[in-house]
Amino acid sequence: MGKDWKGNIDSWKITSREMKMVWDSMSRAKVSESARIFTIINNCKETIWPGVTPGGNFNGGGFELKQGQSMVFTAPVGWVGRIWGRTGCNFDKNGKGSCQTGACGSSLKCTASGKTPASLAEFTLAALDYYDVSLVDGFNLPILITPLHGSGNCSIAGCDGDLRTQCPSELAAKANGNVVACRSACDVFNTDEYCCRGVFGNPVTCQPTYYSKKFKSVCPTAYSYAYDDPTSIFTCSGTDYVVAFCSSRNQPVCTYHNNRLVCNESKGSKSSDERWWSLILASMLAVNYLYWTIS
């Protein structure tokens, strides 16, 4: 079960001796090769409450992530599930409350899928993993899936653009006068054409619409409608995953696997700022991983 790291970049410090202790502890940690490590990161400017179903391995299916925080979990091969972010939530000490977007009933810990509209990260873990980001049920947060150290296609899936700023007015979901999410055309109009059902229930007759093309223009590697498979679903073997909310596609991310640190490379040569950011991420992840393994 994951543990959250309660620090932030401005206040976090670690000595070389402490860093050595972290790496030594990490090298002794035994993580099954049949499991996938998930690092969930909140890079949004607001607190979010990720939901996960099924969530037995993910803190019971729901948790709070403040800006800059991350959580680390493992999921076994065979897990089929989804991860999404909830926004504008208010929960009491018993985990009961409400959210503006993505709510799974009135509970912090989700046992069912969230309410639309919500951006979804979807996974099927097997010898060959399948993963995607779906906006078929609408959009509420930018979300990226980055596989690390795997083999195969292993492309970044998802969206680092914010559809809320470009949402057609007829699809906009608002709270206090602000657009907090962008609904799907199916959700708004409920027609066979927009919902890919009835005579439109196959990939030949269900074609991109004005609205799905709008979604696709902002999020080219996310599902914009039900049969948007060719540019939206990806595969990778033996990988771990970073699921990042409100991150740039070129932003470095790191995970730890099989006794070694693994970070992705941003496109082009790394600037000194990027190298420093990778070091910070690696160190933060090390502390997070140590806390998670010994707690």
From TrEMBL:
<keyword id="KW-0964">Secreted</keyword>
<comment type="similarity">
    <text>Belongs to the thaumatin family.</text>
</comment>
<keyword id="KW-1015">Disulfide bond</keyword>
<dbReference type="InterPro" id="IPR037176">
    <property type="entry name" value="Osmotin/thaumatin-like_sf"/>
</dbReference>
<feature type="disulfide bond">
    <location>
        <begin position="104"/>
        <end position="110"/>
    </location>
</feature>
<dbReference type="InterPro" id="IPR001938">
    <property type="entry name" value="Thaumatin"/>
</dbReference>
<dbReference type="Pfam" id="PF00314">
    <property type="entry name" value="Thaumatin"/>
</dbReference>
<feature type="disulfide bond">
    <location>
        <begin position="186"/>
        <end position="195"/>
    </location>
</feature>
<feature type="disulfide bond">
    <location>
        <begin position="196"/>
        <end position="206"/>
    </location>
</feature>
<feature type="disulfide bond">
    <location>
        <begin position="159"/>
        <end position="219"/>
    </location>
</feature>
<dbReference type="GO" id="GO:0005576">
    <property type="term" value="C:extracellular region"/>
</dbReference>
<feature type="disulfide bond">
    <location>
        <begin position="154"/>
        <end position="236"/>
    </location>
</feature>
<feature type="disulfide bond">
    <location>
        <begin position="89"/>
        <end position="99"/>
    </location>
</feature>
<protein>
    <recommendedName>
        <fullName>Pathogenesis-related protein 5-like</fullName>
    </recommendedName>
</protein>
<feature type="disulfide bond">
    <location>
        <begin position="167"/>
        <end position="182"/>
    </location>
</feature>
<feature type="disulfide bond">
    <location>
        <begin position="44"/>
        <end position="246"/>
    </location>
</feature>
